[in-house]
Design goal:
α3 crosses α4 and α3 runs antiparallel to α8. By secondary structure, the protein is mostly helical. The chain contains 8 helices and no strands. The longest helix is centred in the middle third of the chain and has 16 residues.
Length: 181
């Protein structure tokens, strides 16, 4: 999606495993993702969809911390934020990266959000690169697109979003339902 001309650019013919694993014969996961960006930017004349989701960043971060701490339930390695870089914390984050990588195509959205939250400390190959996340509201913009994609794609992509980001995804989904009333 290009916010300058308000157009979505993608190719239906470029089929990848993210779409085929979701049961699509065309590149629909990319379309759903880019349409999520379009919805964010074009929510209303006076603001964006992310303006309606002020707790999204906090919920994403809390879910990521909870998941990371639960992957290895070890009290001496409790992560409270992703700002520190102790050896034990790095080892734990590497384990989460490997966990996401096990289903890389299904978890590409998860990888992208984790990369944004951790500034690249957790990722599996899908993502935007560290400097991207320095942009204003980059995490919120991508999370909205990824979550809309999960809703529209359903199946394993939705289950992954519910597994890794349960409270943030519920918050997003509830807001979408409320806005559709």
């Amino acid at each position: 999606y290009n916010p300058n001309d308000r157009k979505i650019y993608f190719s239906l013919n470029n089929l990848d495993s993210r779409s085929t694993l979701s049961g699509f014969k065309k590149n629909m996961t990319t379309f759903f993702h880019e349409y999520g960006h379009w919805l964010d930017y074009n929510y209303s004349i006076s603001g964006t969809l992310r303006d309606e989701l002020p707790m999204l960043r906090e919920l994403l971060t809390n879910d990521a911390i909870t998941y990371t701490n639960n992957i290895i339930n070890d009290e001496k390695i409790k992560i409270k934020s992703f700002l520190r870089n102790s050896k034990l914390e790095k080892e734990k984050m590497d384990i989460v990266s490997r966990e996401i990588w096990k289903n890389s195509s299904t978890n590409s959205s998860i990888s992208d959000i984790f990369e944004g939250i951790t500034r690249g400390k957790i990722r599996d190959g899908y993502g935007h690169g560290s400097s991207y996340w320095e942009r204003s509201f980059a995490l919120e913009k991508e999370a909205i697109a990824e979550m809309f994609e999960a809703i529209a794609s359903g199946g394993d992509r939705r289950k992954a979003m519910e597994k890794y980001f349960p409270s943030a995804f519920k918050y997003f989904e509830d807001k979408i339902k409320e806005l559709l009333k």
